Description:
31% of the residues lie in helices and 22% in strands. By secondary structure, the chain is α+β, with helices and mostly antiparallel strands. It has a 7-stranded antiparallel sheet with strand order 15-12-14-13-17-18-16, with helices on both faces. Strands 5-6-10-8-9 form a 5-stranded antiparallel sheet. The model is unreliable at 1-25 (pLDDT under 50). Bound molecules: flavin-adenine dinucleotide and 2-acetamido-2-deoxy-beta-D-glucopyranose. 2-acetamido-2-deoxy-beta-D-glucopyranose is lined by residues 353-354, 357, 427. Residues 353-354, 357, 427 line the site of 2-acetamido-2-deoxy-beta-D-glucopyranose.
Amino acid sequence: MRVVWLLSIISVHVLQILATAVPRTLLSTTCIRIASEISSASDVYYPGHVKYARGINHWAASSTQLSDCVVEAGTAADVAVILNILGDTRTPFAVKGGGHGTNPGWSSTTGVHISLYRFSQVNYNAATQTAEVGAGLIWDDVYAALEPYNVNVVGGRVPGVGVAGFALGGGYSWKTNQFGLTADTVTAFELVTPLGAVLTVTQSSDPELFFGLKGGQNNFGIVTKFTLKTFPQTQVWGGIITILEAFFNDVRDATVNFHTNVLDPKASILSTFDAALAVPIVTLHLFYDGPTPPAGMFDEFMAITYLSRDVKTRSFLSLIQSAPAQLTSGQRAIFQTVPYLDVTTDLINTVINETKFWSLHLTVPTGTFISYAIEPFLPTLYTHNTETTAYPASRTQGYMPLNIYYAWLGSLSDPLFHNAAKASAKVIRDSAVSQGQAIASDAPMYPNYAIYDTPLEKLYGGNLPRLRALKGLVDPQNVMGLAGGFKL
Length: 488
Ligand SMILES: Cc1cc2nc3c(=O)[nH]c(=O)nc-3n(C[C@H](O)[C@H](O)[C@H](O)COP(=O)(O)OP(=O)(O)OC[C@H]3O[C@@H](n4cnc5c(N)ncnc54)[C@H](O)[C@@H]3O)c2cc1C
Ligand SMILES: *[C@@H]1O[C@H](CO)[C@@H](O)[C@H](O)[C@H]1NC(C)=O
């Protein structure tokens, strides 16, 4: 595939530019103070060190900044020491999980970058059917560690995505139709609060914080460990099909029919209408949580004429890693989202038109890839948790998050792409409303997909006063306000 090959060449080029950026020479006094107060379990790295580079690196180049130093914390107690110094000196900082955030400055800083790589344990507890998972891991590592036990957790759908940011924002998974969002499956958080306490937060120990951490992102401190429910895992069926523009309507029809007719919660799909270097292309992800899907379930998809197809019975990890999510890694990127209620022909027609329209208007300047992901879920997706959570604010209605993703080269084009993502989301939203979908006012936007200037009301709705009250109690000095993110 020539398009794919070109994209990887571009990524390598961008990475080379990044790697040769001139390092800072002045050592920050805050970094020096941190180095002198942390235990021997932690280290501070400066520009030029390979662990500095790994610390600040993100999936999207636009999410990477050169920090004064990278602190690799080794214990929760050291994270508390670091937060205390940062609050004391009012130093801007970042905390990064898997570095897949697309909003600039959400997990990067020119100040102190806190890296969680050393929180990398996966401890499976067969008796409680839970796994303790370090906050520095990506989902691939968690799936690999649990595979020998034939169990799994509810996590990311493509390779490379971090556990921490994903779980703290919600988490839409291949297994969400069966078990809810990732946040719904968290039974405990190990949290370092902005006041320096190391807490194990559970529903019974601290129901308010437990509520806030399930969607509230980095507002309440730094999570060092998640305890997640585990579920039996067999081999799965699925993978990726790429399809050319001539067959887009076939994908549309199969997607609508799948959403309308398939009520088996083990089945899940992602239909992404993309354009790679102005060539429209569908990347279709199919998933069934078992070695063989029931007869007929995916036949309509399998009958579409394809460019490439890699669909088979395989391990869960193999399915995750079959997705081409790393192709545009190293380029600039932005996400935006539209919450919607139904997958219809009209909605997908709008999406196909947006794909083609913005392909012409964006990929001609510096764009390399644009993508609109239709992510059908069952209307029951929020019914797997009866506790209240920061996101979604209400569970009476099951919304799906449409994901808009653009990739490009060169920071001068940032405003063009950011504005286009917002404009396109508005077109899709208005179109869904005009088609009768009740999403005009209180439909929640998914915090992990929403663009940076989304009003907090749109993310948290009626939960906002409760979250702000909690924030005032947990972080009276607004230490977490020194880090990027949607700030309460
Ligand atoms: C290729 C790709 C695929 C994706 N697929 C999905 C998907 O299938 N489903 C889905 O729901 N989402 C998906 N996402 C979105 C994903 O949920 C967000 O990008 C999420 O922020 C990733 O988490 P991270 O740890 O990698 O990100 P980071 O950039 O490291 O962090 C994101 C945010 O979380 C905060 N944070 C990170 N670690 C901690 C911590 N330990 N304590 C407190 N705050 C912390 C950061 O400060 C930052 O504000 C995808 C994103 C990408 C780029
Ligand atoms: C396609 O999308 C563009 C941009 O949103 C819009 O101007 C145009 O009217 C749309 N065309 C159709 C047929 O919907």
